[in-house]
Amino acid sequence: MSEGNDSTTTSSAITIEDVQNLVKKKDEIEEQIKVYYDVLEDQKGVGMTGPLVDAEGFPRGDIDVYQVRNARHNVACLQNDHKEIMQQIEEALYRLHAYEREKREKDETQAKAETVEQDRPLPHPFAKVDAVTPGSPASMSGLQVGDEIFEFGTVNSLNFQNLQNIASVVQHSEGKPLSIAVLRSGKKVHLGLTPQRWSGRGLLGCNILPLQR
């Protein structure tokens, strides 16, 4: 189950800032390791492996044995931390690249879909909006004067006969959102319009004229 949870956040959770923060931690660990190595170097260059006892087996008197042991211990711990942070950086970079690749493929797919949509012939509108009253349901939906309607709820260019078709849909859809599709400046625009009572006449607040077929 835990692997499943990780997979849902792998692509979306990682950012370049996350990677930069991990690199910053790595740099801090390396700086700390350097400090302790300097301590060991100051102790007669004893390093990580130099003897702490003299030839007779007694603690060396020319170095601070406790300080050396403490520095060595801290270096060992920090090296483990360094190894872990390097693995985290490697994983984060992989996840970041996977996310970017996924996003790029998604963008390309979307761009292709938009191209296909643009290449399709424009639908034939059957009605045109010639008036929209400010503050009306039509106005609130984003409908504009000059919009040419090719879908109005269940009415489309194939089954439209006259404006009574639209009036019937409006009467049966009071308080319910209708999907409207129009041509505006040569582009398709999809709107949601809810016929409802308002301060003006009717349920829409716009005037629609049929187009010559």
TrEMBL record:
GO terms for cellular component: cytoplasm; nucleus; proteasome complex. One of its GO terms (biological process) is proteasome regulatory particle assembly. Pfam families: Nas2_N (PF18265), PDZ_6 (PF17820). Keywords: Chaperone, Coiled coil, Proteasome. The keyword Transmembrane helix does not apply. Residues 68-119 form a coiled coil. It comes from the Eukaryota. Residues 109-186 form the PDZ domain. Belongs to the proteasome subunit p27 family. Interacts with PSMC3. Part of a transient complex (modulator) containing PSMD9, PSMC6 and PSMC3 formed during the assembly of the 26S proteasome. Acts as a chaperone during the assembly of the 26S proteasome, specifically of the base subcomplex of the PA700/19S regulatory complex (RC). During the base subcomplex assembly is part of an intermediate PSMD9:PSMC6:PSMC3 module, also known as modulator trimer complex; PSMD9 is released during the further base assembly process. This is 26S proteasome non-ATPase regulatory subunit 9.
